[in-house]
Amino acid sequence: MAKINDYNFAGKRAIVRVDFNVPLDENGHITDDTRIRGALPTLKKILADGGSLILMSHMGKPKGKVNPKLSLAQIKDDVAKALGTEVKFAPDCMRASEAAAQLKPGEVLLLENLRFYPEEEGKPIGIDKADPAYADAAKEMKERQKEFAKMLASYADVYVNDAFGTAHRKHASTAVVADYFDKQDKMLGMLMEKEVQAVDNILKDIKRPFTAIMGGSKVSTKIGIIENLMDKVDNLILCGGMTYTFAKALGGKIGNSICEDDKLDLALDIIKKAKEKGVNLVLGTDCVAADSFSNDAKTQVCPTNAIPDGWEGLDAGPDTILKFREVILPAKTILWNGPAGVFEFDNFTTGSRAIADAIVEATDNGAFSLVGGGDSVACVNKFGLADSVSYVSTGGGALLEAIEGKTLPGVAAVED
Ligand code: AMP
Q1: Mean pLDDT across 297-304
Q2: Does residue 96 contact residue 109 with C-beta atoms inside 8 Å?
Q3: Among the residues of 94-189, which ranges form H helices?
Q4: pLDDT tens column, 242-255
């Protein structure tokens, strides 16, 4: 695999998989351009070297069909503004050879939404998996995916993948296309490099103590990560809605709190494994309980294992917050995924805010802190603390799979 900073793009046409899946309002205007800004270092480096750019991305889930509401033509001018140069547009990804061939150094061509073509995702559409015809359709689609990827590759001399958000997908543009480039002509973009480095800091280059904070609503969606982290962390805080599955499993009364009744054994198993592995598992001991699921509900602080009937735990309590701070402040490596309460309600942000503040303090004292996964990112943004932690990941599913220890196809494809 080549390294983007060592590569000279002068006179080369670079096809770059970016993540321009930006949110649009009903008039097709971008409401948050973070993802476009995230790709700029890579794109500017290529242009500054004297290369030309072919940009490709998906937007939304058009499921293999053309959908004007998800056309990347809508964001062409925004990309041009961000890059400070004109951007040409190719309305058909399969017929962009001429436009690509005509690119001069410094010029930019944006391809239409890749997911307008079923070949991008490479899965048969409109056939149930149980249908006997599915296997043949899937095989045919894989062949079409290869052809599609080959076509994309033919537009350029070099391939760069800078779309971390889709790195966990084996799509034509994120992985298969890399097969058609030599080792020295495919690489990760700068954003991808930063994301991969951040995950390495968490999983490989660990400075101790390592405290992971897993929150959110359910234990079931986090179990893969919890299990992988169990071999690595010194302290594991489990907070948010999953607190009550643990409290109930341990025989507590949890009132109306959110609970996965079919995961009580799993919760006990996690407690047992933590003991066996010498991991300090930290669970909330008290909570802010509410008499309804609303911002204006009446509240009381009570033990997480003695919540009155009709009440539900919606945030971490004061003793819990102190316990969390005790293991976050001295940490030298910190991972935070998932809020400690229903942070969308302003009256139930205290626990999440306390975690964010403790992470910022620990970071100021030299810890490496990674915040990732949609809701914790929303938390640090809501608190205005995104610039005060070491790294805020742009990847949702991709980050979680990487932390689970899975190989990301988008990374593996350029490494091969
Ligand atoms: P997840 O997508 O699993 O990371 O969960 C994030 C969601 O968990 C957020 O929308 C929070 O509002 C929710 N959440 C956190 N704590 C609680 C709680 N105590 N009760 C219900 N939902 C919660």
Answers
A1: 98
A2: yes
A3: 97-101, 118-121, 134-154
A4: 999 999 999 999 99
Q: Using the atom order of ligand 1, give the atom closest to the CA of residue 215.
A: 4
The pLDDT, as a whole number, for residue 203 is 92
Kindly report the CA angle at 63 between 141 and 118, in degrees rounded to 5? 25
- Are 216 and 177 found together in one domain? no
Q: Is the CB of 258 under 6 A from ligand 1?
A: yes
Identify the band that residue 159 occupies on the pLDDT scale cut at 50, 70 and 90: very high
Residue 228, CB-side half-sphere exposure with 13 Å CA sphere: 16
Outline where DSSP puts E strands in 167-285.
Answer: 186-188, 210-214, 235-238, 253-254, 280-283
Residues 279 and 143 in one domain: no
287 lines ligand 1 (CB under 6 A): no
**Is residue 350 lining ligand 1, measured as CB closer than 6 Å?**
no
Pocket test for ligand 1, best of 213, 214, 217 (most atoms within 8 A of CB): 217
In a domain, 411, yes or no: no
Catalytic residue list contains 366: no
**Closest ligand 1 atom to Cα of 373:** 4
pLDDT in tens, 140-152: 999 999 999 999 9
Q: Domain total for the chain?
A: 2
pTM for the model stands at 0.90
Q: Is 374 a known active-site residue? A: yes
Active site (annotated) includes residue 51: no
Q: 414 lies in a domain?
A: no
* pLDDT, averaged across the chain: 96
Residue 11 confidence (pLDDT): 98
SS3 state of residue 118: helix
313 CB within 6 A, ligand 1? yes
Q: Answer with the one of 125, 156, 188 that is the final residue of a domain.
A: 188
What percent of the chain has a predicted confidence (pLDDT) above 70? 100
CA of 81 to the centre of ligand 1 (A): 37
> What DSSP string describes 143-161?
HHHHHHHHHHHHT-SEEEE
Does the residue 410 lie in any domain?
A: no
Backbone angles phi and psi of 231, in degrees to 5: -85, -5
Please give the distance, rounded to the nearest whole angstrom, from the Cα atom of residue 274 to the centre of ligand 1: 23
Range of the domain at 179: 4-188
| 314 C-beta closer than 6 A to ligand 1 | yes
Cβ–ligand 1 distance for 240 under 6 Å, the answer yes
Q: Is 35 a catalytic residue?
A: yes
